[in-house]
Design a protein that fits this description.
Length: about 475
């Protein structure tokens, strides 16, 4: 399996630190609002990486944080007159709902920055002892960037270019730094802001130290994969490397993966530019499986332009797979012969070929666009060869392959079957009989079971009526 590593700018063979295991950290969102579909891109992409690794037999320890202390969260809390924690908790809950609807698996651990302050104080103290951190007059603690000789190795930037670039960006308070390249590890509190005690001043951590510490705590000093959107390469990930490697004295992450932007009119979708759609907005119009399909129809390192037409194309592509699986299920329900017939054995060998192609595409730096093409080939194969003259084992094998490969991409393509009218009437009859026998528990159970399948019962004077909801 090859992964493009931002560090070497090359595709490299994936070799885990510990055989059979993957330690992976993905920078999560800052929770002050509903997530937009730009934020959804890394969630979907790296969830697919994780699913593929699991399909390959790796045990994946997947850690993704929520940044729950930040200027924007504090600003919103002040506007609403509530504690910052109320805002972050609210949007963590909302984000988890969006993730579920996009079929993004919960991480093994979702740490919160505010629960990890102790670890941050420890790491900053270590950096201070090793000469990598210093306190300025107002209590701010900075990282002494020039002491970390490999600074710039991820973003492939030259220190002197950075120095020149940063000088023009000097803002108030920055003049207390020893060097314009130095960045904040700990900052003093401002009136009305959440704060923690520290050896330097009451205050709160800088953003970069949070991820270095959470990654260390849940995955150890050395990890396999560290990932996020490409806007995080510099300065966030560059600074994380400097902090972690300076403090731990070991290489931090072996593979650095970055997804390209989701754009609108070829401009990055972002809250600040105001050119965004939330996942919720899209969910009102489309099943979010279609959004997932849309994201995976491009390679994760290629920019992706969002448009109504592309979403419609994604909808018809996704539905083509769902319809094919529905047809195969229909065939299976109608009683097919139990033993393989004709050239089905040979055809099943052909089926394996599509799976090999799927794996080859994914092994090549997660080329989901090509992987989805092999699912389409499989669908075409199903539509050509599986029919009323087929055997049950053949049709089942074809269906299972389509479902399995789609599932590796996190795409749910097997829809729950709708209950037929006759089946509903039968269950209502059973419920009436249970009531007569005073078995109310069973009667309620049937009502709930029907409700779960979208059937609402109404007890009226004329008898039981039902409707689909
Ligand atoms: P943020 O909440 O801005 O820190 O972003 C959370 C994650 O979403 C990070 O990995 C960002 O790189 C990523 N991200 C934000 N906007 C976009 C976008 N338009 N396209 C792709 N990824 C994005
Ligand atoms: Zn991070």
């Amino acid at each position: 399996m090859k992964i493009y590593n931002t560090l070497s700018k090359k595709k490299e063979e994936f070799v885990p630190i510990e055989e059979g295991k993957v330690r992976m950290y993905v920078c999560g969102p800052t929770v002050y609002n509903l997530i937009h579909i730009g934020n959804a891109r890394p969630m979907i992409v790296f969830d697919t990486v994780r699913r593929y690794m699991e399909h390959k037999g790796y045990e994946v320890n997947y850690v993704s944080n929520f940044t729950d202390v930040d200027d924007k969260i504090i600003k919103k809390a002040i506007e609403e007159g509530v504690e910052a924690g109320v805002i972050s908790q609210r949007y963590i809950e909302e984000c988890k709902k969006d993730m579920e609807a996009m079929n993004v698996k919960p991480a093994t651990t979702h740490p919160l920055a505010t629960d990890e302050i102790g670890g941050m104080l420890e790491m900053i103290q270590t950096l201070e002892k090793k000469g990598y951190a210093y306190k300025a007059a107002d209590g701010t603690v900075y990282f002494r960037t020039r002491n970390f000789k490999e600074y710039g190795k991820l973003s492939h930037k030259n220190l002197d270019d950075l120095q020149g670039g940063n000088r023009s960006l000097l803002v108030s308070g920055e003049d207390q730094k020893e060097d314009s390249l130095d960045f904040v590890l700990w900052k003093p509190k401002k009136e009305g802001e959440p704060y923690w005690e520290s050896p330097w001043c009451n205050g709160r951590p800088g953003w970069h130290i949070e991820c270095s510490v959470m990654s260390k705590r849940y995955l150890g000093d050395e990890i396999d994969i560290h990932a996020g959107g490409e806007d995080l390469v510099f300065p966030h990930h560059e600074n994380e490397i400097a902090q972690s490697e300076a403090a731990n004295g070991k290489p931090f992450a072996r593979y650095w993966m970055h997804n390209a932007f989701l754009n609108i009119d070829n401009r990055k979708m972002s809250k600040s530019a105001g050119n965004f759609f939330t996942v919720r907005d899209i969910g009102e119009k489309y099943d979010l499986q279609i959004l997932r399909f849309f994201m995976l129809s491009a390679h994760y390192r290629s920019p992706l332009n969002f448009s109504g037409e592309l979403m419609e194309a994604a909808k018809s592509g996704y539905e083509r797979i769902v319809t094919s699986v529905g047809n195969l299920n229909y065939l299976l329900k109608n009683g097919l012969p139990d033993s393989m017939c004709g050239n089905e054995e040979a055809l099943l060998k052909e089926l394996e070929g599509f799976c090999v192609k799927f794996d080859e595409a994914m092994d090549d730096d997660f080329n989901t666009a090509d992987a989805i093409s092999s699912i389409f080939e499989l669908v075409k194969f199903a539509n050509t060869y599986a029919g009323e003259g087929s055997s049950a084992p053949f049709v089942r094998a074809v269906k299972e392959k389509i479902v399995e490969l789609s599932d590796i991409c996190g795409l749910k393509v097997e829809k729950e079957e709708e209950l037929l009218d006759g089946e509903i009437e039968k269950l209502i009859g059973e419920r009436q009989a249970a009531r007569k026998a005073k078995n109310f528990a069973r009667a309620d159970e049937i009502r709930d079971e029907l409700l779960n399948k979208g059937i609402l019962l109404e007890d009226t004077r004329e008898g039981v009526k039902w409707k689909r909801v």
